[in-house]
Amino acid sequence: MSRRDPSTLDLFDWTPPAVVEHPDERVLRARTMRERIALAVAQVLDASDKPREQIADEMSAYLGGESVSKAMLDNYASQAKDEHTISFARMVALCAVTGDHRPLQLALDPLDRVSIDARYVGAIQEAMAREQMERLERIARAGRRQWRGRA
User: Fold this and answer.
1) Residue 2 falls within a domain, yes or no?
2) In this structure, are 31 and 76 located in the same domain?
3) Does residue 17 form part of some domain?
4) N or C, which terminus of the chain has less Cβ within 10 Å?
5) 36 lies in some domain
């Protein structure tokens, strides 16, 4: 019987982390965009280790002193409060202070776009450059065949 060293990485027992984090199914199944936003706010608030009062205080500071209260956060997270949808600026502040960017992805999904960590931008640029180089190489090969009379 072999014993596994807990400090050694097992390459065969690894699942890559999600590149794009989406809100959970409950959020995505909501009928209206307003309901999805409220559920996404609730999901972020519930998932955070910080109390709502602290989140509100940090959002206020993030927004340059604009007042955000726990009661406002409660209203933003409520599906029953139609007139209390969170503003975009406050949504950005909420995501910034909690580190949870799923609500931003909720806004991007209908646009066929994704929110990713900035550190992955270089990898995407590299993949795009490689695709372009492959396309240009196919064009060059076709031109070479035509030029040499093997079209």
Assistant:
1) no
2) yes
3) no
4) N
5) yes
Q: Retrieve residue 67's tokens.
A: 């007042």
The residue count of the chain comes to 151
Same domain, yes or no: 101 and 135: no
CB 90 within 8 A of CB 82: no
State how many domains the chain has: 2
- The pLDDT tens digits of the residues spanning 88-147 come to 999 999 999 999 999 999 889 889 999 888 999 999 999 999 999 999 999 999 999 998
CA dist 136 and 130 (Å) reads 10
Q: Which amino acid is at 103?
A: P
Token digits for 90? 């406050």
